Amino acid sequence: MERVCDTTYGKVAGTHHNGCTAYLGIPYARPPLGELAFRHPVRPEPWEDVYEAVQGKANPLQSPGEDPFTARYTSQDCLYLNVFVPDDIPTPAPVMVWIYGGAFSVGGTGLQDDGTLMYDLSQFAVDAQVIAVNFNYRLNVYGFLDLHSLSDRFDRNCGLHDQVMALEFVRDNIAAFGGDPNQVTAFGESAGAASVLALSCIPAAEGLFHRCIVQSAVIEHFFTPDEGKANAELFMDLLGATDPEEILTLPEEDIERAGNAFEGNILLQGDIRCAYSPIIDGEFLPVAPVEGVRKSPLPMLIGNNLREGDTFVKQIPFFLLPLITTYIQVDVPSGGGSVRDKASAGITQHVFVKPMKAMLRDRVGPVWKYEYRHGEKLGHIDELPVLFGMEDDPTGLNMRKIWGRFASTGELNWQQYGEQPCKFVIE
């Protein structure tokens, strides 16, 4: 049964789905094609007929991979969002906006090959008792490579600008879906969590959300303008092009091939930051989030998984582990344990825990910290199938209720992180 809602751009029709009315594939910006490609997003044109928001759209362009959260149904025409409204939820309801991770290179919230969504938030919305929103933002070359440093034809940080425009859509329209625009929580994982931190420092995003949940953030994965320019020049060399505007007419396969080589080259340089990390340009993104977030008054729930490094070390041959951890300057703990376990512990501390503690030192806003220790899979992204109900697991229900309680109240019933660096353990 269709359910119609009125937005500032026109009416949208959703459909009943798993205890929610799901509004899928709503445009929050014009398709970034032609003259709009590699530009900051532009608001969509209004529509006259009822927009049938009953099926997800394509995910952002990206290289295929084995990661379950790497999208395969992709297109440059990708700037759409989804809204999940639980049945009979009291209104105005708290709102949670999910920002996916994927190293600023892969991911999405659109359709998978089997016709399901990359992130179906219906179960999450019902159990958390929130209106849940997710959206696509541009990735890799199209969203984060700093081609602006080589030509004014290209804009900088397009992926972050997409995120701001999606949050503006929520601010302007969520009341029509029954949501409270003054009670919005942004939450994300990995690069999505780093995006939440960046948005907390971006003046253009001020007031667009009021609480944040930060899961396994790659906190230090941002580039200076000089680093961004060097990376753009490297990409152009690998593409075999001298004029960056050639990218506008080259086949997507050529760009993908150069992109794969580019990410490998960044890692070979010993830089373990995401190869397409956003640029700290001093204007739109004024400061590095590890510094800027300290001044943010927003209530924050933040944490990591116990063995984040497991996801990375399992991809490295055993005999290379000591060499690689030395090369990327990871301090491996001494004492007992296997080489692989110690490498995982070192990466977990180096990439996730130490930067998090540095960022939280003397932070203005209240913080609650968690550590995910549930089950046997405790690596990077391993909490997501549990959190979003992709696995039938009672711990997932508990997490959804905790996340929803925080979104509803901005508080939790365990001690804040502060002078005593306490944490809540999810087991």
Q: Could you explain the architecture of this structure?
A:
- By secondary structure, this protein is an alpha/beta fold.
- The radius of gyration is 21 Å and the shape is globular.
- The protein has one domain: Rossmann fold.
- The mean pLDDT is 94.
- Strands 1, 2, 3, 4, 5, 6, 7, 8, 9, 10, 11 and 12 form a twelve-stranded mixed β-sheet that branches.
- Helix 1 packs across helix 12 (394-409) and helix 5 crosses helix 6 (252-268).
- Helix 1 links the parallel strand 6 (93-99) and strand 7.
- It has helices at residues 122-128, 140-143, 158-173, 191-201, 225-239, 252-268, 289-292, 310-313, 321-327, 339-360, 384-387, 394-409; strands at 2-6, 11-17, 20-27, 51-52, 80-86, 93-99, 131-135, 179-189, 211-215, 300-305, 367-372, 424-426.
